[in-house]
Every structure is written in structure tokens, then in C-alpha cells.
């Protein structure tokens, strides 16, 4: 499900994205439309929404009795005429009573879909997203804001840079926000009492001072929520480098190490995990040691290391490595004694280079973790940092279940992005060339820009895979034989 190459968020000389993992339609939901009549009893689904297994999972997390929300009818409308026939349709006469009065001209743009009875299980969530912004494409907040909004989150975007395009193009225009500008924007929210956020998602910051400013925002929001454990959660992506090198100034590293103590979930890649832990990851055992060190040194309850290729690590235990064309995401939620609960998810790599996938992963994680925690029951929602009791095994952790959905969504979106990319490049190849009018160097530059543009993530056209992921992978627990002796 993942792609074969991970680039980063795309704010440095070398673009970077963590997890490239891995019919389109547009839809709008209406809670109640003019003339809508609830379905008859014969068509309503019977029985509780939670299966016996789900009920047991709730019991594992807390002893409170969680009442499942009642099911509401949901109507879906498909806008583009191109997608007629994608799903079974109702005739115009049948669908008429469900629609508000619209003109004949505008009604042609609406294509009805079969009504469904499911609602999003993501609780109402207010998010402060602090990250980069680009005019063209989906990177930073341009990616994260839409991804979270598509799952029902209310997002306030505070942009740390504003570029024309992501830096993977190797050329861009724009500005970087200063630490004071970041602080001023947050103070503007404070003075109007606009800081009732449930989650903060922080990504790329252009300087050490900017990291400090973002950290101060996170700490202020955490302090405001102290009297209500579980009411605020901070997801932090420590964007520092990849492929064995930093692409931020050296002073950014200690700035991140200072603020990570206050985050609830961090999302480093392999290189960043090595920088934070001080441990070179060469095997499954050293990988477990690195995650354990991050839990211990920074008191971070949740860690996900994005997109590793385990086939490159030496094997000492019983867990087989996935094939070379697979990527692996490793996660952990700490136990009360500080030891990790490790899980992994293997996803097939896609032979394509995308930008913005790290931002997609972080954004979807915000929504899906909220969903998984809500499914676990009221007690976990009111627990600091949403840390499950020790009797919840790694594969059943909300963090693991959320990661599974996130990677499934991403794989579906990126598969279709790669198909669209290949089609676009094939079409371009048939166009007449400008032989003799461009120098060899200029021709290579134009070819590179064309390939980069073709690989922009098709997020909007594939939004349905964000909302309704096709779960096609499995969570695996860490085998004791693969743990260092002290952790077995």
C-alpha cells in the first residue's frame, strides 16, 4: 500500500515525505434535506452497532459503559457528471422529494447515489494545524487541512511558510513566517477566545526560533487543559531530516528535543528517531531500543516511526522481514512502567515519488486516533494522553487501529495518484517536442518539472478513500525474540 520512496514534507533543498504508502467521486452529506422521510422500519438496520468483539475491546480499555450513538440516515450526492453510473442511482422522479428546489439547469449537475445509513464515527474535533502552506498542490497545511476536514474536523490553519509550490520542484517563491509572526497569530486567537482546540497538529517550522514559538503554543494549550485530562492532545511531526542527513539548521535539533517532552504523539522517520534516541537502527532489536529510549528520555506516550524498510535491517529474532518491495510502519504506546507496546504494519511500496504524504499521514492520524479512542469508551477519552491500560495488547491499541485505517486510505489514494501520473506522462509523451529550441540542460529541467507536477497527490478526486478506507492490511505484534533482553 505504501509507495516505494518516501520524501519529506518538502520544505528544504530535498523534498521529504514520511509515508508514501501505501471511481473517484465528490460527495456531500446532508443531515436533513427538504422533504426527507426517514426509512421505514423494514429498511432500518437492526441490532447494536458494536459486535461482541468490539464490546470486548471497549471493556479492555475501561469499565465504563459506553453507549453507541444512534444511526442516522445519510444522503450522498455525486457532483461530477463524469461519474454517473459509478454507483446505482435513483431516477429523477424518485430523487426529487429529497432535493431542495433547484433550477433545471443546476439540477443536471447533481447525480444521486444510493443513500447509506452510516455516519462518520470521528467525534466532533477542533484542530489547530501549524504547518507550511503552498499555493499549488497538497503539502503541509494544504494537505492536512483538507484531509482532516474531509473527516469532519474543524481546522484552524496557522501557516509557518507560504510558498508557491513545494520545494521538490527545486524552485519556488514565497515567504517564511518569523517566530514573532507565529506568536502574534496565536495571540490573536487567544484575545478572541478562539483556542478551544481538542488537538494540535504541528509540522514543519522554518527555524529554531519558530520551533520554540510552536512549542510555546502547544504548551499553553496543554496548560489550559490540565484540569480536564484527555481534553487536549498534541501530535508533533519533528521535521529535521531524512536519508541520513539534516536539512534544517543544526540548532533546530535541540529546539525539538526541548519541546518533544510536551507532545503526546510524535511521528519521526527512521533518521529522526536515530537523532532523538541517539541509537543507530541496524536491527529489529536496536529499533525497539530506539523507541524505548524515546519513550524514556522524552516521556512521550505514543511514537510512530514512519516508513522503514525492514528488509535492510539485520535479523536476530523469529519475525520474518517483509519483502524488499514493502515498507513498514512501527508504532508503540507506553505501558505504566515505561516499556513499549510495539506493533508493525507492512504495506506494499509504490514505485513513485510523492510529496506531502507525511502530512497526509499526520492529518489522518489526528482524525482516526480520535475515532479509535472514542470507540474505546468514555474512560479512555478522559485519560491523560489517551494511554490505554496495560492489559490492552499492542495490536488492539487505538494507535494501532488508527494507523491501520490511515495506511489503508493512503494506499488507495496513492495508487490512483500513480495511475493518473502515468496517464498524464504518457499523454505528454505523445505531444510534439521542441527539438532544437531548448538546450539539453533546459530540456532536462522541463522534463523534471513535468514529472514532479504529474506526481502531485490527487487528494480531492479520491476523497472517498479518506472517508471509507478499504482496510487491506494487518497489525502485527512484536515477537519477544526480536526484543532486547531487557524488554522481553
From TrEMBL:
CDD domains: pyridoxal_pyridoxamine_kinase
Database matches in Pfam families: Phos_pyr_kin
Residues of the signal peptide: none
Origin superkingdom: Eukaryota
Enzyme class, spelled out: transferase
SUPFAM superfamilies noted in UniProt: Ribokinase-like
Name under which the protein is recorded: pyridoxal kinase
Region (Disordered), start-end ranges: 31-54
GO CC annotations, alphabetized: cytosol
Keywords assigned: ATP-binding, Kinase, Nucleotide-binding, Transferase
Listed GO biological process terms: pyridoxal 5'-phosphate salvage
